[in-house]
């Protein structure tokens, strides 16, 4: 049994979020949440929130009331690019340079260990 959660338009660079996602991909949910909770990076907060949402979605299913959160693991964790906010900053000699503020989408799938 699986459950999914998607966090869209997260105002973090996908490269920075992917760096943190590598730490928890494929782990048991409880271990992943501990790693993210005590991580210093700002990208760990939306990841932790998305994983908690996926676990909640799993437990709210009809068959999910028989499971405990310790029985779940992260089956899939995907970080996709979102749109870019394009801004400009003044540069030397009267020019302007482009600043691209990146966003990302976080997709999390959690599954029961017995399903493997």
What can you tell me about this protein's structure?
With 116 residues, this protein is of the alpha+beta class. It has a single domain, classed as Ribosomal Protein L22, Chain A, CATH 3.90.470.10. Helix content is 31%, strand content 39%. The protein is built from three helices and three strands, in the order E-H-H-H-E-E. Strands 1-3-2 form a three-stranded antiparallel beta sheet. Helix 2 packs antiparallel against helix 3. The longest helix has 16 residues. The radius of gyration is 17 Å and the shape is elongated. The model has no long low-confidence stretch (mean pLDDT 94).
Notable features of this structure?
116 residues; alpha+beta; Ribosomal Protein L22, Chain A; 3 helices
Short description:
The chain has 116 residues and is α+β, with helices and mostly antiparallel strands.
Question: How many DSSP-defined strands?
Answer: 3
- Name of the top-level CATH class: Alpha Beta
Determine the mean pLDDT. 94
Strand order of the largest sheet: 1-3-2
The unreliable regions are: none
Radius of gyration: 17 Å
What is the annotated CATH architecture?
Answer: Alpha-Beta Complex
Work out the helicity level.
25-40%
The rough form would be described as elongated
Strand content: 35-45%
Sequence of secondary-structure elements: EHHHEE
Q: Would you give the CATH topology?
A: Ribosomal Protein L22, Chain A
Structural class: alpha+beta
- What is the end-to-end distance? 10 Å
Total individual domains: 1
- Total helical elements: 3
Largest beta-sheet characterization:
3 strands, antiparallel
Q: What would you give as the CATH superfamily?
A: Ribosomal protein L22/L17
